[in-house]
Design brief:
There is one protein chain. A hairpin with a 2-residue loop joins strand 5 and strand 6. The chain is 47% helix and 17% strand. The protein has 292 residues and is of the alpha+beta class. A 5-stranded mixed sheet has the order 1-3-8-5-6, with no helix packed on it. Helix 5 crosses helix 6. The protein has 2 domains: 163 residues, Jelly Rolls (Sandwich); 94 residues, Arc Repressor Mutant, subunit A, CATH 1.10.10. It has 10 helices and 9 strands. Keywords: DNA-binding, Transcription, Transcription regulation. It comes from Blautia acetigignens. This is AraC family transcriptional regulator. InterPro entries: Cupin_2, Homeodomain-like_sf, HTH-like, HTH_AraC, RmlC-like_jellyroll, Tscrpt_reg_AraC-type_HTH.
Length: 292
């Protein structure tokens, strides 16, 4: 299977992740991948194309598509676009699971091919997602409350208007193929600061070391140790960017043995030392202040 698992970490202090699509400049292609989170792409300007299980779904401004948990998809953005992406952890919907951690949503983009089924009106959902991004970006006084109010409106509409109440057995079985690894990676994200070992994880989830190792290589296209390092680095990067913690403290707080180990991994991944990266951020902030 030629697809990769995508690691998704919510925005700091929030139960979800929201951002502008990284392919906004056009001429962008994202190969087949999957993730546990539910994902919504709301196109504000331009257009892009989704491929879900090799079926094509073109989207234009004003349209959106919902990507379900464990659903293999790829994206092609031929031209400039402005698209808001909202990623919601699967556990946010656990009260509405139909079976085996399974829940499925539809959208007008999917239903457009089925003339016998009435598609939900996307305007409300698109409005709340766009507003959610605006409020999060502006972060004016009281933004936390407004953000969560908009977010719960999104969850309400998804459960009320977009949730499919019947699940085909074949769909559930397909989802189970990736669900086992999803549970493991979720545990790793919740305990990444601890001393996690492949053997301990295998025992915890009832697998042999060799089987769990093969599972990571087959479905995540990465080995266990490298995946754990990715999680730690993602959180450490965020703290380096948004806090005044020392580099040594960031290293220890995020599961690295020491600051030297963290610095080496950071330079390997980003091509710059953590100290130089932080200095670059400080210089950029000073430059912006000079122009305001």
């Amino acid at each position: 299977m030629e697809f990769q698992h995508e690691l998704i970490i919510p925005n700091e202090g929030l139960p979800f992740k929201i951002f502008l699509f990284e392919g906004g400049q056009g001429h962008y292609e994202r190969e087949k991948h999957w993730h546990t989170s539910i994902e919504i792409f709301a196109v504000l300007k331009g257009r892009l194309t989704f491929f879900l299980n090799d079926e094509e779904y073109p989207l234009e401004a004003g349209e959106l598509i919902i990507i379900n948990s464990n659903e293999i998809h790829s994206i092609y953005a031929p031209e400039k676009n402005e698209t808001v992406v909202l990623q919601i952890p699967l556990k946010q919907f656990e009260k509405y699971f139909t079976a085996q951690r399974f829940i499925r949503f539809t959208s007008a983009a999917r239903l457009a091919k089925d003339k016998n089924t009435k598609a939900p009106d996307n305007r409300k959902l698109a409005f709340f997602i766009e507003e959610l991004h605006k409020v999060y970006q502006a972060r004016e006084e009281g933004w936390e409350y407004r953000t969560m109010a908009l977010y719960y409106n999104v969850l309400y509409l998804m459960v009320k208007d977009y949730r499919e109440t019947k699940a085909e057995q074949a769909e559930i079985q397909d989802s189970r193929r990736l669900d086992a690894l999803s549970k493991i990676t979720t545990y790793m994200r919740e305990h990444y600061t601890e001393d996690l070992k492949l053997s301990d994880m295998a025992a915890l989830f009832g697998y042999s070391d060799a089987y769990l190792s093969r599972m990571f290589k087959k479905y995540a296209k990465i080995n266990f140790k490298a995946y754990l390092q990715e999680i730690r680095m993602s959180y450490a990067y965020r703290e380096l960017s948004n806090t005044e913690k020392t580099i040594s403290q960031i290293a220890l707080d995020n599961g690295f043995a020491n600051s030297r180990a963290f610095s080496g991994e950071f330079q390997k991944k980003y091509g710059i030392l953590p100290s130089d990266f932080r200095q670059k951020l400080a210089d950029n902030k000073r430059s912006k202040k000079c122009y305001t």
